[in-house]
Design a protein that fits this description.
single chain, Alpha-Beta Plaits, 4 helices
Amino acid sequence: MLNLLRFRTVADYSALPDLAPASPISGAEAYDRYISHTLPFLNESGGEVMFCGEGGRFLIGPDAERWDRVLLVRQNSIEDFVAFANHEEYLKGIGHRTAALEDSRLLPLSEIAFSAR
């Protein structure tokens, strides 16, 4: 799965005050809290983060569009992803993701093999 992430300048915990830190933090910091919470559940479900990188503006694409971070996550199956995404303990930390993100995209991918000709 390809994750495109655009962070808020300041994380918005207004809908989730129980998760809010004592002092304001950036969207990137809130997302890092989400990832720290999430990785054990992702790994337990058979998933893994294959790539995590900083993004920015497109080299080819809309000038006004930007993505701050990109993640590539491998999961064994859609069923495993759905089970992970509905895990009760995982859901307790998803508010950090909500607070962190201004916008996001999640694109499921299927690997294909290229043949050299």
